[in-house]
Amino acid sequence: xxxxxxxxxxxxxxxxxxxxxxxxxxxxxxxxxxxxxxxxxxxxxxxxxxxxxxxxxxxxxxxxxxxxxxxxxxxxxxxxxxxxxxxxxxxxxxxxxxxxxxxxxxxxxxxxxxx
Amino acid sequence: xxxxxxxxxxxxxxxxxxxxxxxxxxxxxxxxxxxxxxxxxxxxxxxxxxxxxxxxxxxxxxxxxxxxxxxxxxxxxxxxxxxxxxxxxxxxxxxxxxxxxxxxxxxxxxxxx
Lengths: 115, 113
What we know:
The complex is a heterodimer.
Chain A: E1 4-7, E2 10-14, E3 19-25, E4 32-38, E5 45-51, E6 56-59, E7 62-67, E8 72-77, E9 86-93, E10 103-105, E11 109-114
Parallel strand pairs in A: 2-11
Antiparallel strand pairs in A: 1-3, 3-8, 4-5, 4-9, 6-7, 7-8, 9-10, 9-11
Chain B: E1 5-7, E2 10-13, E3 19-24, E4 31-38, E5 42-50, E6 53-57, E7 64-68, E8 74-78, E9 87-94, E10 103-104, E11 108-112
Parallel strand pairs in B: 2-11
Antiparallel strand pairs in B: 1-3, 3-8, 4-5, 4-9, 5-6, 7-8, 9-10, 9-11
């Protein structure tokens, strides 16, 4: 079936430490993997994404890695800051080109960065 | 460019009623997807419209329907509302079939009493 599992559900780190969130997907045809950050009362915001032809992508303090063989992808945040505190969602596209608009989301990870 | 907008932002309805929510995508975006967000189920895909045609559908009952207009604006309708339909309904727009980046609107908070 179509499923994305995300771990951990909550994560608490000290400011300056790194945070890692992991996701596993079920559909081997998935080829697009975005990450969203949602602050309380706000819309999900796209922070980084990766496509299946790339193993790693980095944007300043944020990086995403993808292991297609194992169907795993992860979000890495370095030098965390209090403003990184939010709920983070991973997602995977379902199917091939015929399903380009359908994303299946993980359950979310609540990240708390303690000053 | 203006972002994705949704109206209304808040709605309170009674069980059994119907509701229509509206979504205006980013200018130039032709794909609109709808999601339901609840604390228990997270973000769940409802359906996607592209060039006025429903291209994908999630696992929701037929009470949930939608449509897209020629200017890419989209509406979703929920008939015979149930208490369990209380949720944040989010729409997201994307450029086209070959561009996957989806940008979300602020959502419509629906409360069914």
